Task: structure prediction
Amino acid sequence: MDIRQLKYFLAIAEEGQITSAAKKLQMAQPPLSQQLKLLEEELGVMLVERKPRSVQLTDAGIILRNRAQQILELTDSTAREITDFVKGLKGTLSIGTVSSSGATLLTESLSKFHKTYSGVKFEIHEGNTFMIIDLLSKGIVEVGIVRTPFNTSNLEYRYAQSEPMIAVMTQEYDWATTEDTIDVKELIDKPLIIYRRFEQLIRDTCLKEGFDPVIFCKNDDARTTLFWANAGLGIGIVPKSALSLANRENLIYKEIRNEALRTQIAAIWIKDKYISSLATKFIENFGQH
Result:
């Protein structure tokens, strides 16, 4: 049993059909079938049940599929680790970021890292938190930059400093012209524009203060919240650092005095999975424990 055979077997397991697996591997079907047969003979067990147009894994096949995935991931990680050792701190670091991560905070981390490790290049992928975690699990990015709250299952993380959430609005919505901060209760009956993933947090906080918030618009991007608020359509609720994403020409903002409505940027990576020296150094330079 060798790495090549395990790759062949995994392709068959994923495709559920030898013909499709052969196409995926860019090889003819007979040699692939022969490799599967040799693997079964070596292990002394049937790995798949052959049907007219498909194959189905046996119990032994399921065990091998799970182990093969681990073996191939370890092989790939080992190769990357050796490459990192040979190259030193050079190469390309892939990072996934959410829009509300705050350009200033992320830029500060990148600038600090770049000054120390000038030979490193970057590849940035943008999306929401769920997309970033998916990119991490698929190995497309090594480090994700997301914002609390997020599900910490299977993740390691390192936080930056916490910051308040703010209410952003045009002058026509500014009911407290002389104040820089507001209480949550002041949002009663105000048309709120929110980033969808903060909805539960905002609702729970408002309900504890005795009212149900009026959600005028929910969206999936902090920039959309800011654009709508800037157009005078309502009051946006965003993390303070997200202001760097918007044209602030028409916007006024008020910090919300409530500990529940504080949030943090976090660097995240997959638990118990190899990460490169580049990613390790970037994490060390990011935020605080």
Summary: The radius of gyration is 25 Å. The chain has three domains: 3-84, 90-161+265-284, 164-262.
